[in-house]
Amino acid sequence: MSVERAGKGNVIAVDVSPMDPIVGAQAITADIMDEATVDSVLASAADGVDVVLSDMAPAATGHRATDHLRIVALAEAAFDVAVRILRPDGVFIAKVYQGGSEKVLLSKLKQAFHTVKHAKPEASRRESAETYVIAIGFRESK
Question: What CATH number did the domain enclosing 33 receive?
């Protein structure tokens, strides 16, 4: 984040479930998979954003392969928003489950960002496939 913008951030939160109000944040109760929701987010951040963070996860079915495909689809949706809204050098973070289908997303991230890595939260169980992909240094595409 540049020095000029330090301390002047805006938070736009999107969730399908209602959220408790957060001072300084705009909460949108909607589905990010709906293009009207994406349009609302884009309008709310017309000047762009520095970070897109997706902690989205589908309701678990208990079928590992299905759950994997569904969370990768959510991460891909978040990435699609990110490339439309991130400022140059921005950051993208998304929860994914390891399982193979995330390779296409990782390839797109490597093309769009300078650095791509994974992080597994300490709070995540060792046997869990949950991890986060962190992409730093968005390459502005014009």
Answer: 3.40.50.150
Selecting among 95, 103, 117, 142, the annotated active-site residue is 95
Q: Is the pTM of this model over 0.70?
A: yes
pLDDT digits (tens, 9 = 90+) for 109-126: 999 999 999 887 776 666
Residue 68, domain extent:
3-138
Q: What is the 3-state secondary structure (H, E, C) of the chain?
A: CCHHHCCCCCEEEEECCCCCCCCCEEEEECCCCCHHHHHHHHHHCCCCEEEEEECCCCCCCCCHHHHHHHHHHHHHHHHHHHHHHEEEEEEEEEEEECCCCHHHHHHHHHHHEEEEEEECCCCCCCCCCEEEEEEEEECCCC
Residue 95 a catalytic site member: yes
Q: How many domains does the chain have?
A: 1
